[in-house]
Design brief:
This protein is an all-alpha fold. Helix content is 77%, strand content 0%. It is built from 16 helices and no strands. The longest helix has 32 residues.
Length: 422
């Protein structure tokens, strides 16, 4: 079957100049990543308005997010495989169009079951995006710019998460359906724009003239077997999962901690958490991306060391928050946490490129994303159980710092020995 999104094969090498559209690609995907997380977060921020329009229990409202996470996590490896098997840009376009239509349809749900169905559809469509986007950026940006490009893209995800609060504001100003209609239509229109500019990077040809990249030879079970045949990939998956646990434990409980420790109103506590952590992360992604690319030019373990150094600072920042009684010091620690916690994030996909077969990059990222999603969902539940048991939040933070130390050890074990082939 002919791939309608395919591009001609052209010779290339890891040291060749960047394609003309390499940074344009990052900018276009920045907007897509922003829309991705904005669309998924909006519903959470307008809980009261939705429950007023569509009667449901708190448990049912929680099920909306749980179902999304389950479907999203379960299908992420499949979404990654499709990006390896077919066209990365094609999968991104289909994903963006589908979740934008689903966002618009959400505004027309009149029953709980209808709303539940749209969240399941959202999970299916969004599962295809991140693995394809990460792999496409890796295709365009070789070893010299890969981390910075990945960091800029992920900064769009951060901004989208922060802007998710617009949903609650729009629900108060108009009604709960307005935001879903607005961003749904906006996403469809942006899909049309991307169709004119978004393309796969031309696939590689070796000196012997044989194909050396994605193509019809990719098979799901072969991809899984290849990925897990390398122990570094299994360690990377464990690292990503434990990092998610530590991060959820810290960020998820931070508004409650600020409210109880410094007597901040609920709204101000939540704004303080997101403002300072996300602002720090935006800076950290750019700094870590540029630093990692520079270091990796002379040391294949450069990206690992940048992430390792970042976690060396992140863990003490968590402990400082847990033991601080001064709001100003806590805010400084939150900014430091945001900056340094971004260091391993910008380097995960570039490290995957060093430890996996070039044909299975998107599948590998999909598997890591699935594992982290399931772990994150379990952490949310456990956090609620600990809260019900009146566990001191400081103990949770201390455990989170311990988890970050474990992540440092796991990251050190990966230690790529060679530069990525492409």
């Amino acid at each position: 079957m002919t791939n309608p999104f395919a591009t001609p094969l052209t010779p290339a090498s890891a040291d060749s100049p960047l394609p003309a559209r390499a940074w344009l690609l990052v900018g276009m995907l920045w907007v897509v990543g922003c829309l991705n997380y904005l669309d998924r977060v909006m519903l959470i921020t307008m809980r009261g308005s939705i429950k007023e329009a569509i009667p449901m229990t708190d448990a049912q409202f929680g099920l909306l997010t749980t179902l999304f996470l389950f479907v999203y996590g379960a299908l992420s490896p499949i979404g990654g495989f499709l990006a390896d098997r077919f066209s990365r840009s094609g999968i991104i376009l289909i994903s963006l169009f589908t979740w934008s239509v689903t966002t618009w349809l959400t505004a027309h749900a009149t029953t709980f079951n209808g709303l539940l169905l749209t969240r399941a559809l959202m999970g299916i469509s969004e599962a295809c995006y991140l693995p394809a986007a990460g792999a496409l950026i890796a295709d365009y940006h070789r070893n010299k710019t890969r981390s910075l490009a990945n960091g800029i893209h992920l900064s769009g995800v951060m901004v989208g998460s922060a802007l998710g609060g617009l949903g609650g504001w729009m629900a108060e100003q108009y009604d709960w359906t307005f935001a879903f209609k607005f961003f749904g239509i906006g996403g469809v229109l942006y899909t049309v724009v991307l169709m004119c500019f978004l393309r796969d990077r031309p696939r590689q040809v070796t000196e012997a003239g044989t194909e050396n990249a994605t193509g019809n030879r990719v098979r799901m079970w072969e991809a899984i077997r290849s990925l897990f045949s390398r122990w570094e990939f299994t360690v990377a998956m464990l690292f990503w999962g434990f990092l998610g646990i530590a991060s959820w434990a810290f960020v998820g409980w931070m508004p409650t901690y600020l409210s109880e420790t410094f007597n901040l109103p609920q709204g101000k506590a939540g704004l303080t958490t997101t403002l300072y952590i996300y602002s720090g992360s935006l800076v950290g992604m750019i700094v870590a991306g540029a630093w990692s690319d520079r270091w990796s030019r002379t040391n294949p373990q450069g990206r690992m060391w940048v992430g390792f150094i970042g976690l060396c600072v992140t863990a003490p920042a968590v402990l400082l928050v847990a033991n601080s009684t001064v709001l100003g010091i806590t805010i400084v620690a939150l900014v430091v946490y945001g900056i340094t916690r971004a260091f391993p994030d910008v380097n995960m996909m570039p490290i995957i490129c060093q430890i996996t077969d070039v044909r299975y990059r998107a599948t590998g990222l999909g598997i890591l994303n699935a594992f982290a999603t399931f772990v994150g969902g379990a952490t949310i539940y456990i956090g609620g159980a600990l809260r019900d048991a009146h566990v001191d939040i400081k103990i949770v933070f201390q455990c989170g710092a311990g988890g970050l130390v474990l992540c440092m050890f796991l990251l050190y074990l990966i230690r790529p020995k060679t530069m990525p082939v492409e």
